[in-house]
Design brief:
heterodimer, A: alpha/beta, six-stranded mixed β-sheet, 14 helices, B: alpha/beta, five-stranded parallel β-sheet, globular
Chain lengths: 507, 211
């Protein structure tokens, strides 16, 4: 007989009931439910906070340092610091969000067999199974990156990897997760693993190194440059994948610094390297990636924007899901909020945050320095959702990182504007371009800005079809791309400080 | 309004040319250089620190105010040399740790400490433990203040404390740490003397540690 006490853990608003033995870390339970741990569960951020509605969870010193006495009294806890000691009813601060899956039509050269394209993101994975002859997508699977419990952003992942045994642990996690994902794709499409000819993966440099088993040591410290950035080729069997021992697996090469093959794929997908006019591509993620260039030459860089665009570190921030305010507009002297999922508002997602600040600037509720006109009181957008002074500051940090990165690249190029700018990724799809312009995040005319979807996945698919013609090393393309290390550029921090302010008037 | 009040306001508003002009005028009127610190510069930067804490001031406003204060202190410092009644509140060696180039926070702390009357030896970014030990020895510093932004470079701070201990300097200097990933508990665990959660806290701590 099992004498260990099991406890019932009920989650709100997902209405999921779990069973756990006393002493089980809450983190282990919640990670499987899609809750993210931005600092890797070390109690250094507030990203995983949950509210205990019923039952008890102990407060340790790490929580006292990160939560206010009021929050603790109201039941807020850092999930990463709690263990199960009783039955619990917990409200999750994070919700599952739709991951952008690319379904853009593309040109292809027919081949025999099946192919798999994988966008290996720091946070999410997207994999597609393709019929290489018909160019048709047979199945799609998305998942949270299983490494994410060891840190949400690339730096905390690198930190984990540099501890003894860490790198190997992350490598095993990701290889086995992707292997399983491919098996699921095959079973969903009712196809056999022996048909899989090629697997193409794209991801940033840290994801590349962790998957390939290359040490991330050089990426932990200045100058953040690794030498092992080239194309990596494996046989599926070497990776422990048993659906087909001899499928060829290629992780496409990186571009430099933290800029990886997800951006290389973005260049392929947007044809940024084919045109004459100066074109840009920005992925507005926690690690913002930027490319500008023409057929002749391209410059790329990455800049740490932080998680504000994803609603993290915002007092009432949340992912783009039911209850999130996703749009804010001016309406006859008032403010109008659009709430996702036809629900009552419970928080603010990234696009809503950008809108809210743009409207606040227009209405004089926020001044160009970022100060709230009545800084001590939050600005109530749509009860109970409000915007605090600190929320505006978090957005200023994020937008300045991107805007400064773009400005430094343009200055290097000797240009002041772009003929076209593509926004990659989910946030790029949902952000209001006029609001992004108003807050100085993108200082280009809104009609020159275009959402390009999941360019990393589209590029990986294109690569699947062009591998016959070349080895996938993209030597010519890589020679035309120059990586600019913003962290080593003395002007970057000055430009960053300048970009913290908002534009005075709508241009 | 007195010239001290005007100068305080000019610093808070970040008006560097005005701050400089007021300082020059005050000196011409016979005010002693040493008087500017307790009567104008220190209270002005304390007010900037207060506004920063309350989120009223953000990084740009703090930097601009600190630059205005520096305009005044640059005029005053040379006049203090040889004045035996004036001693710096302490000598601070500062920089970002090895591997970390993020220095906005460090610059704010350095400028605030300077306006609070400390002598600052700013070693810049990506500073090795050896360089710190050497500077502490040569300049007889009594505080080492280091910051870091990346979680991956935090470990290098431990190396600084160890190097100071190995050089037999650990009893002579107080070690202050700060930066986004740093916590009080971590500061204790590496054997630092104090953690400042923001620039005003760092100044308070420095004042307390050398008192």
């Amino acid at each position: 007989m099992n004498c260990k006490a099991t406890n019932r853990i009920s989650l709100r608003p997902t209405q999921v009931d779990l069973r756990a033995e006393a002493g089980t870390p809450l983190r282990d339970l919640l990670f499987e439910q899609g809750v993210e741990f931005p600092c890797g569960g070390q109690g250094r951020c507030r990203g995983c906070r949950v509210r205990v509605l019923e039952g008890a969870a102990e407060v340790n010193p790490a929580q006292r340092e990160r939560l206010s006495p009021d929050e603790i009294a109201n039941g807020w806890r850092l999930a990463c610091q709690c263990v199960v000691t009783s039955d619990l009813v917990i409200e999750l601060r994070q919700w599952d969000a739709a991951i952008l899956v690319d379904d853009t039509p593309f040109a292809f050269l027919p081949r025999e067999g099946l192919g798999v394209a994988v966008d290996l993101g720091t946070t999410t994975l997207v994999a597609q199974l393709l019929d290489l002859r018909a160019g048709r997508v047979l199945a799609v699977r998305t998942a949270l990156n299983a490494q994410a419990r060891q840190g949400a952003d690339v730096m905390s992942r690198v930190q984990f990897a540099t501890a003894p045994g860490g790198q190997r642990q992350l490598e095993v996690l990701i290889r086995s997760q992707i292997g399983k994902l491919i098996v699921q794709l095959l079973s969903a499409a009712n196809r056999s693993g022996s048909e899989v000819r090629d697997v193409v993966l794209v991801g940033n440099t840290v994801m590349h190194h962790l998957f390939c088993g290359f040490t991330v040591e050089p990426l932990a410290q200045f100058p953040f440059e690794s030498e092992r950035t080239g194309l990596a080729v494996f046989q599926a069997g070497e990776l422990g994948w048993d659906f087909s021992a001899d499928s060829r697996v290629r992780f496409l090469p990186c571009l430099g610094g933290f800029v990886g093959s997800d951006v290389l794929a973005g260049i392929l997908a947007t044809k940024l390297g084919d045109g004459e006019g100066l074109t840009g591509l920005i992925d507005l993620g926690t690690n913002g990636e930027i490319v500008i260039g023409t057929r002749a030459k391209m410059l790329c860089a990455s800049t740490a924007a932080g998680p504000a665009f994803e609603g993290a570190r915002i007092s009432m921030g949340m992912r783009a899901s039911t209850g999130a305010i996703s749009e804010v507009t001016q309406d006859q002297g008032g403010v109008k909020c659009h709430v996702l999922g036809n629900a009552s508002p419970s928080g603010l997602c990234g696009s809503g945050l950008v809108d809210a600040v743009a409207v606040g600037l227009e209405r004089g509720v926020i001044d160009p320095s970022g100060r709230l006109a009545n800084g001590r009181n939050p600005w109530v957008l749509c009860p109970p959702v409000s915007l605090t002074q600190n929320d505006v500051r978090e957005l200023q940090l994020a937008k300045a990182a991107i805007a400064a990165g773009v400005r430094v690249l343009l200055e290097r190029w000797g240009a002041t504007s772009l003929t076209r700018l593509y926004l990659a990724g989910a946030f790029g799809n949902y952000i209001n371009r006029a609001s992004a312009h108003r807050i100085g995040l993108l200082s280009f005319p809104p009609d020159s800005v275009e959402a390009a979807g999941n360019t990393a996945l589209l590029g990986a698919k294109l690569a699947l079809f062009s591998l016959d013609g070349e080895d996938g090393a993209y030597g010519d393309l890589r020679r035309r791309v120059e990586h600019v290390a913003l962290n080593a550029d003395p002007s970057f921090q000055d430009v960053f400080v300048e970009e913290l302010a908002f534009p005075t008037v709508a241009a | 309004m007195s010239i001290f009040e005007d100068l305080q306001q000019a610093i808070i508003d970040g008006k560097a040319p005005l701050a400089k002009e007021l300082t020059e005028r005050g000196l011409k009127e016979g005010i002693k250089a040493a008087e500017f610190f307790p009567k104008a510069i220190v209270p002005a930067m304390d007010e900037v620190g207060r506004r920063m804490r309350e989120c009223e001031f953000f990084i740009p406003e703090v930097l601009i105010a600190a630059r205005a204060a520096r305009g005044a202190t640059d005029l005053l410092r040379p006049l203090l040399v040889g004045d035996q009644s004036i001693r710096p509140a302490g000598t601070v060696v500062c920089g970002t740790v090895k591997g970390d180039l993020h220095d906005i926070g460090k610059n704010i702390v350095a400028m605030m400490l300077e306006s609070a009357g400390f002598r600052i030896l700013d070693l810049g970014v990506d500073v090795s433990p050896e360089k710190i030990v050497q500077t502490v020895q040569e300049q007889n510093a009594n505080i080492v203040a280091m910051s870091m932004l990346l979680t991956t470079t935090m470990v290098n701070m431990k190396g600084v404390v160890q190097a100071l201990t190995a050089a037999g300097l650990r009893d002579k200097v107080k070690v202050l740490v700060g930066g986004a990933p740093v916590t009080e508990a971590w500061a204790k665990s590496i054997g630092a003397d104090g953690y400042g959660k923001d620039a005003p806290a760092a100044v308070e701590l420095a004042r307390r540690l050398v008192a």
